[in-house]
Specification:
Elements lengths: L6 H14 L11 H40 L4 H10 L6 H10 L1 H11 L1
Length: 114
């Protein structure tokens, strides 16, 4: 029985990877084996960093809330603890936005929890 190969699918797979490697430097953009490894590694970084981005933004929001809370004489942990005890449900993203762009509203929240 003759050997059967699916060259069409093989070429399509390679074209897809080489298209993803467009813009890479040197052989990473046009040599199949090098491009395949580069694209695989890039996809791993992309997957990992989509999760790390959420972590980084949360840390940024906490820093902003802490800075704004300290202007009103309390620490971040005190501020969040009092928010929970008064059942004020605002997430950190919204609080950080208020602290940066609308300090009067943030002060109103601080006054409400004191």
């Amino acid at each position: 029985m003759p050997r059967s190969v699916n060259s069409v699918a093989k070429r399509a797979r390679r074209k897809k990877v080489l298209k993803q490697a467009k813009g890479y430097f040197g052989r990473r953009k046009n040599v199949w084996t090098v491009a395949k490894n580069a694209v695989d590694k890039a996809m791993l970084y992309a997957f990992r960093d989509r999760r790390n981005k959420k972590r980084s933004f949360r840390a940024l929001w906490i820093m902003r809330i802490n800075a704004a809370a300290r202007l009103h004489g309390m620490s971040y942990s005190e501020f969040i603890g009092k928010m929970k005890s008064k059942n004020i449900d605002l997430n950190r993203k919204v609080l950080a936005d208020l602290a940066m762009n609308n300090p009067e509203a943030f002060k109103a929240i601080v006054d409400k929890i004191n």
